Amino acid sequence: MFNEIDFRPELAAFDRFVLFRPCRPKVLVVTDGLNFAPDDDFGLTQFVDTLAGSPIYGMTPTIVKAHRGVDGNADIQGFRFNDSSHGLTINRYDVVFLLGFGREGAALPAAELDAVKTFMQAGGGVFATGDHEDLGAGMSKDLPRVREMRYWLDTETPDFRDDTRLSTNLPGDNDIYEFDDQADTHPQRLYVNYRTDAGGIGEPHPLLQGGRLGPIEVFPDHPHEGECHLPSDLTTTFALGAANHDEWPQATVGGGRVVPEMVAMSMSHGDAFPGKDPLVPRSFMSIVAYDGHRARVGRVSTDATWHHFVNVNIDGTDSPRDGLQSPPGTDTPEMTKIRQYYKNLASWLMPKRRRLCLAFPWVIAEVLRYPLFEEIRVPVLKEAGPEWLHRLGEQVSDALGMAHPGWQAKALEADALELAIGEESAARLLGLGRGYGRLSGREVALSALGGLVISAIETTVKVRDKQDIDVDKAYVPGATQAAKLAVERYRQCSLEQIQSIQDLFQQALGGIAASDKSREPRAAASA
After folding, report:
1. How many whole angstroms separate alpha carbon 264 and alpha carbon 289?
2. Which of 282, 238, 290, 281 is nearest to 262 (CA)?
3. 290 or 5, greater pLDDT
4. In 43, 68, 458, 481, which residue has its Cα 20 to 30 A from 110's Cα atom?
């Protein structure tokens, strides 16, 4: 057998939030006309509180609330994206949420635009939304990729005053269409796209995977939403500094431009009520996402309206209804799913470099939880055979998949494999899938993950000064070597199995050939 690492006493005694403090995710929420007041219908407190209380890859994020104007509930007032003390940089924040109210005339100045562009090109994640007409255009209409993933201008967007509006309001308990139906316990149906590259055919996009909750197929409703769309021209460029950059760059693996995907659609009903004309029903895109990691830039997501995020649509603030909380203060099952969407946004948009940093505290936390804390056996790396490396990776991945949406565990597997064999080779290997007669890239990835887990545990046991670790120096080199070793042991084991099968076939086929040959003279003689 092998010597085991007695990790439980050592790991149970440390605080991962102290040890891995530099890995803690940092999320910026910016608005220019909504607010952070808990008693305001257009407040973002329910959304922000969800983010603040939701671990991202095992660690609770730091949330910074910024207002471009005046808001006493904000952490930063008078926010400017290029401000040297609080502005948007990849060293200061990982993900930014832009929930804009300012119209087209409030466009960002060039210096602020460049700050956001630089952040995106460096791998930072961006979420952007507005509402009907040009609400939200001020912050978002000129941002690369964002500008072509949602309608922002008056000439393109639905108008709340006429029959171009998009209404997702469903009637409430009285079965009558009313404006306040947006704040009741009857959310709209969300039509999930089960065919995206990011999700894989048959699964929702990661943004709408709810884990044990099932697919996220509900959204707060509203009588006049905005609309997302996909770009029609993938050859556009944008200026940053003295250079022009491809807006939709080529994928690092496989060629071709990485394109945004429609994540879900909503249905605009033909409803009418006082002050709102009846409509011709039609579907429209409510969520669009762009996987920039495939092109070594940041990920992007857009949403049809910030009414999917403000208090009135969640808890009924300033309305006669309770929102998606019934009894008041208690989330309905539908609201639980919507909060998972918020969590998915922050997690999926996270830069790859931050996700790798978080991989180590995440797996350590998981082996300290039931059932792994009782069941798992961790061999010393130099004695770990290929079966045990694979088994360990599988155990950890399965445990994470039970507690979180499945895409997060798959991302961890892919990151471990990338450490072992590089970005391009990992992507190609995982692309093999499970087709007939093909090797399974995932089996190799699970072995690499097993190596990462052992290395993370060994390193943590050895660390004496357990605070503010430099993960790039203390953890990544060892994990890289461990993942490489695990993949090599998997390869050797596979070659031996293939050789055994080949020998078996040769023996069997040779026996058949000999038997056939022995029959030939008798057949000739009888003839």
Report:
1. 10
2. 290
3. 290
4. 43
